[in-house]
Amino acid sequence: MRLLLCTDMDRTLLPNGPQPESPGARRLFSVLTTDSRVQLAYVTGRSLPLAEEAIAEYEVPVPDMLVADIGTAIFAREQGAWRRDTAWEELIGQDWRQLDSAALARLLTGLPGLRLQEEDRQARFKLSYYVEPTACREQLAAALAAIFQQRAIRVSLIWSHDEITGADLLDILPASADKYLAVQFLRRRMGFSVDEVLFAGDSGNDLAVLASEIPAVLVANARQDVAEKAAAMAMAAGNADKLHLAGGWLGMNGCYSAGILEGVARYQPAFFQDGISA
Questions:
Q1: What is the per-residue pLDDT across 55-93, written as a single tens digit (0 to 9) for each?
Q2: Which domain holds residue 221?
């Protein structure tokens, strides 16, 4: 028995949303990750430096693997340092014809409805925008498709909403790079079967994994529209039994790390039957 535990950070593991955190949940999560049978991976929209900041601020475990920038960069922790997986970046770079996000941004200069996010939110293969409230998503998607198709650039458009700021967001990634594809690459590289993986998430950029064949849990603090869409997508894909909507376990509220623990209990209960406790 072993487990590749993959979790989003903000408002999934990190209690930085408006809902309260269950006392002791983060501590129990940390205890779980000390089990030698558990490999921990954070799968986040954060860059490596921002992920490190959060790890220190919230006192969560340093992971074995970090999937950063919404799946466009993968790092392994080796002897106290991070090693970048260049094979992954060479693979996904083919979709962008080896261009980077700055080059793509120049192609979109003047496109109405989009505003570039801050520099620390950009990465080599992640181009991030704020979407103006009055913008029509369908028209934007069509305009973007026309620009990229003309240049044979293959992209994935990830639409999401920041619950804290209220901003609508768009991340443009290589078509071969999102959280789902990165988790699949990671589990194959590490030799895990699909059923030896658990993914935890809360937002729109987690939907591809939440609705997939990978066992997954949506934490209870996720927005209702995300929960409804995740459930509908999982049902349509024939994966309804692979998605658990956290609602409360061991007297906890299912939010943040409590929801992750609930997912482990749902799909890998033996880890708790063996006596892990806070």
A1: 999 999 999 999 999 999 999 999 999 999 999 999 999
A2: 3-89+177-273
Exposed / middle / buried, residue 178 (Cβ in 10 Å: 0-12, 13-18, 19+): buried
Supply the DSSP symbol for 123. B
How many Cβ atoms from other residues are within 10 Å of residue 173's Cβ?
Answer: 28
The answer on 196 and 127 residing in a single domain is: no
* Contacts with 164 (C-beta within 8 Å, 6 or more apart), sequence order: 16, 17, 18
DSSP bridge pairs for 78: 81
Distance of alpha carbon 183 from alpha carbon 194, whole angstroms:
10
Residue type present at position 209? V
Residue 7 lies in a domain: yes
**64 neighbors 90 (Cβ within 8 angstroms):** no
Burial of 152 (0-12, 13-18, 19+ CB in 10 A): exposed
**Are residue 71 and residue 205 in the same domain, yes or no?**
yes
Boundary residue ending a domain (158, 174, 190)? 174
Same domain for 123 and 99, yes or no, is yes
